[in-house]
C-alpha cells in the first residue's frame, strides 16, 4: 500500500516505443495487487474492508497474460504490491515474465517473508527496484504497529540484502501520531540503509484505516514539526536521499492530486483482476469495476469503462471545484476520501479549505488527536479484529 512514484522521464521512452498513449492514453505505470493476503496487521491498512480471498486471486497464467497485454499497449512500469506480494509463490515467475515483456518492475513489500535466496532469485529474474515499508526506526514501536514480532528486525535485514544485491531501495515510512516522534531517526535509518528515496507517507483515512483514525491522527503541532524536520533534512541530504512528503489531508489547505487525477495516470489491478482507478476505489459503493476476466481488453476498460469515466477530467465537478482556478491542478482531490467523509465520491474532497466540510474535519482531527486514544484495531487477514493499547507484537 504505497504511493506510486511519478514515472517522470519515462515519457521519452514511451514515445520511442511507439506507445498509443495520448490524453487519457495508457498510463506509464500500473500497480498489480497480487494478493490481499498479508502477514502484517497494520491498523492503517488502506485496502478495502472486504478483502479478495485467496481463492479468487488471478492465476499465474492470468497474471502473465495481463503483463503481456499491458506491455503491448505501452505501459512501462509494473509495481508488484498487495497485501504482501511475496505471499504469492509465483512471484519470481511473474517478475521474470515482466522482464521478458520489457517492463520495469518494482516490488512493494513489507519484506518479512523474504529470504536472501528468494530476493536473489528476484534480482536474477530482472527485478529493478525494491520498496520496503517501515513502521518505525526500532522494534518496540515498529512491531507494535505492524502487529508482528521480529518484523522490524527482518525488514532491516532485507533492506541490507537489497543493497548487497545492488538493487535500488526506497524506504516507505508510514507516519502517524504514534510514531512521528521518530521521524528524525527514520530519516537517519534510511541514510544508513543506503536508500535512494524515503517516502514520508502520512496515513490516509479510507479502507481499514478509517476505523483507527482516532488512534493515528497526528496533532497539528506534530505536523508543523514534521514539515520543519523534512525541510531541514531535504537541504542537508541533497544528492544523498530524496524525500517525498505531502502535508496530511486533514491539515492541508488544498487536497492532494490523488493518483495524479482519477483515470489520468495510473490504474490498479486487484487480486481478483478488477481494473481500478486507485487502490482504495472499491471502498466507493455504487461503482462497478470491469475485470481482466471480462471480454474487454485492458485498453478498452481504461478508455471506456463507466468507473473510470465517472470522475475523469473536470466535467463531473460540483461547485466549488467547477469554477475554481485549481481544478486542473488537483482535480478536486481524492474521490475515496470524499466518499469516506461525505458519502458521495462526487463531492469536493473535504481536505480542501473551500469545501463546506473542511472546517469540520480540521476540528475533528484536532479533537481526535488531542483525545490521545492509542488503541489500535488491527487488520487481520483471518478476519479477527484484535484490539490493543499496549505491547502487541513487540
Ligand atoms: Fe481543488 Fe476543488 Fe478545492 Fe479548487 S475547490 S482547490 S479544485 S478541491
Ligand atoms: Fe482513491 Fe484517492 S485513494 S482517489
UniProtKB/TrEMBL annotation:
Catalytic activity: [PQQ precursor protein] + S-adenosyl-L-methionine = E-Y cross-linked-[PQQ precursor protein] + 5'-deoxyadenosine + L-methionine + H(+)
Cofactor(s), by name: [4Fe-4S] cluster
Cofactor remark from the record: Binds 1 [4Fe-4S] cluster. The cluster is coordinated with 3 cysteines and an exchangeable S-adenosyl-L-methionine.
Keywords: 4Fe-4S, Iron, Iron-sulfur, Metal-binding, Oxidoreductase, PQQ biosynthesis, S-adenosyl-L-methionine
EC number: 1.21.98.4
CDD domains reported in the protein's UniProt record: Radical_SAM, SPASM_PqqE
Gene Ontology BP term (one): pyrroloquinoline quinone biosynthetic process
Domain Radical SAM core residues, every copy: 24-244
Functional pathway: Cofactor biosynthesis; pyrroloquinoline quinone biosynthesis
Pfam families: Radical_SAM, SPASM
Origin superkingdom: Bacteria
HAMAP family: PqqE
Similarity comment: family membership: Belongs to the radical SAM superfamily. PqqE family.
Job of this protein: Catalyzes the cross-linking of a glutamate residue and a tyrosine residue in the PqqA protein as part of the biosynthesis of pyrroloquinoline quinone (PQQ).
Subunit structure: Interacts with PqqD. The interaction is necessary for activity of PqqE.
Name of the protein: PqqA peptide cyclase
Organism the protein comes from: Bradyrhizobium canariense
Lineage, uppermost ranks: Bacteria, Pseudomonadati, Pseudomonadota, Alphaproteobacteria, Hyphomicrobiales
Gene: pqqE
Amino acid at each position: 500500500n504505497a504511493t506510486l512514484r511519478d514515472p517522470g522521464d519515462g515519457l521519452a521512452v514511451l514515445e520511442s516505443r511507439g506507445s498509443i498513449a495520448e490524453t487519457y492514453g495508457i498510463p506509464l505505470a500500473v500497480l498489480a495487487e497480487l494478493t490481499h493476503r498479508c502477514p502484517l496487521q497494520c491498523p492503517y491498512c488502506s485496502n478495502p474492508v472486504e478483502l479478495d480471498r485467496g481463492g479468487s486471486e488471478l492465476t499465474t497464467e492470468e497474471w502473465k497474460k495481463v503483463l503481456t497485454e499491458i506491455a503491448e499497449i505501452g505501459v512501462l512500469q509494473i509495481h508488484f504490491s498487495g497485501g504482501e506480494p511475496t505471499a504469492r509463490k509465483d512471484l519470481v515467475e511473474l517478475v521474470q515474465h515482466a522482464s521478458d515483456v520489457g517492463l520495469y518492475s518494482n516490488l512493494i513489500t513489507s519484506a518479512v517473508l523474504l529470504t536472501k535466496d528468494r530476493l536473489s532469485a528476484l534480482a536474477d529474474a530482472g527485478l529493478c527496484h525494491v520498496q520496503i515499508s517501515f513502521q518505525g526506526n526500532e522494534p518496540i514501536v515498529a512491531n507494535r504497529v505492524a502487529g508482528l514480532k521480529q518484523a522490524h528486525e527482518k525488514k532491516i535485514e532485507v533492506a541490507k540484502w537489497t543493497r548487497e544485491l545492488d538493487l535500488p531501495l526506497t524506504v516507505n515510512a508510514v507516519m502517524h501520531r504514534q510514531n512521528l516522534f521518530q521521524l528524525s531517526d527514520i530519516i537517519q535509518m534510511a541514510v544508513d540503509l543506503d536508500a535512494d528515496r524515503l517516502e514520508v507517507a502520512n496515513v490516509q483515512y479510507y479502507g481499514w484505516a478509517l476505523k483507527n483514525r482516532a488512534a493515528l491522527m497526528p496533532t497539528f503541532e506534530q505536523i508543523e514539526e514534521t514539515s520543519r524536520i523534512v525541510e531541514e533534512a531535504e537541504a542537508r541530504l541533497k544528492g544523498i536521499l530524496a524525500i517525498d512528503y505531502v502535508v496530511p489531508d486533514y491539515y492541508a489547505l488544498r487536497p492532494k492530486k490523488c493518483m495524479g487525477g482519477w483515470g489520468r495516470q495510473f490504474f490498479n489491478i486487484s487480486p481478483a483482476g478488477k481494473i481500478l482507478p486507485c487502490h482504495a476505489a472499491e471502498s466507493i459503493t455504487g461503482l462497478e469495476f470491469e475485470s481482466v476476466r471480462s471480454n474487454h481488453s485492458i485498453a478498452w476498460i481504461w478508455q471506456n469503462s463507466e468507473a473510470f469515466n465517472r470522475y475523469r477530467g473536470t466535467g463531473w465537478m460540483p461547485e466549488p471545484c467547477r469554477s475554481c482556478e485549481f481544478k486542473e491542478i488537483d482535480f478536486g482531490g481524492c474521490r475515496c476520501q470524499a466518499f469516506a467523509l461525505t458519502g458521495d465520491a462526487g463531492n469536493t474532497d473535504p481536505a480542501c479549505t473551500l469545501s463546506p466540510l473542511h472546517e469540520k474535519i480540521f476540528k475533528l482531527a484536532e479533537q481526535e488527536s488531542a483525545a490521545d486514544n492509542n488503541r489500535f484495531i488491527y487488520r487481520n487477514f483471518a478476519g479477527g479484529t484484535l484490539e490493543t493499547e499496549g505491547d502487541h507484537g513487540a
